[in-house]
Amino acid sequence: RAKSAGKGRADLCDPELVRVSTERVQLEAALRRAIDDGELRAHYQPIFTVGEGLVTGYEALVRWERPDVGLVAPAGFIDVAEQSDLICEIDAWMLLRACADLATWGRESTSYVTVNISPRHLARARLVEDVVRALEAADLPASRLVLEVTESLGVDEARSADQLQALRTLGVHVAIDDFGTGYSSMSRLHELPADLLKIDRSFLDPERPGWIEALSLIIGSARAVGLRTVAEGVESPAQLALLRELGCDAAQGFHLAHPMPAQAVMELDLPDVRSSVGA
Ligand code: C2E
Ligand code: MG
Ligand code: MG
Ligand code: MG
């Protein structure tokens, strides 16, 4: 469509382009208002140790409780937020919320909460400030917070790597999210400024040729360089059994627990947690 406008130029009169960009601008404005009006919600998905099946942590996942629409998943607004500074607002809000919630639950003192940090936020100097403020407000030790970053951007940019290192010096842990979907290669695992590796759920797909070998290689290599592994998207007992066999440390997925509001986490009847990120 926009091709007719010539190489590298968008046709500003293209009705479809105008419609899409108008929608995006409207969504961005609505989201900006939503953040101010307190419409963001934090849901938490428990992370279990594979060996004992105990809850070791919780991943914080944002939702937008949009009046007249209902609960909107990140897929409906994260992309738009990522294209502006709104994502930094969302991440900063979540840091405060998640640290406060974990502190309130009064769970085993080794359990942790993980917060997804966008590449944009990671490249900003304010991240360290946002993290410190959240920990202080909740009076939470730094070791109980895990930041989830994606491998490609978290590692390649010098600024991001420096920030991660500064945060780790404070005692905050770092997880590489969706591992295996970005650019890092197995041979560079030891260079990752991280404590945890979250293996993308595409590696648990039985349709994927050689998936067991790939999983086994990732888990073995991570272990060799002292990174703990968390498998994402565990949907069946068979997948969990395989992870146990391969020596994966932790797992999350619909088979174990769905993301839930903070109140539901508090009402979970959990045995004590004995494992932590660093254990
Ligand atoms: P993610 O960090 O990889 O989070 C895991 C996603 O997989 C979540 O989707 C979760 O609900 C879903 N999931 C968990 N178990 C299963 C399973 O067994 N099967 C399947 N098919 N999916 C499972 P959700 O909550 O829709 O979040 C999507 C993405 O949005 C997240 O992917 C993360 O990249 C981003 N996101 C969520 N919250 C935040 C946030 O506060 N800040 C930032 N920057 N990004 C966020
Ligand atoms: Mg994540
Ligand atoms: Mg993930
Ligand atoms: Mg993933």
Automatic annotation (TrEMBL):
<feature type="domain" description="EAL">
    <location>
        <begin position="24"/>
        <end position="273"/>
    </location>
</feature>
<protein>
    <submittedName>
        <fullName>EAL domain-containing protein</fullName>
    </submittedName>
</protein>
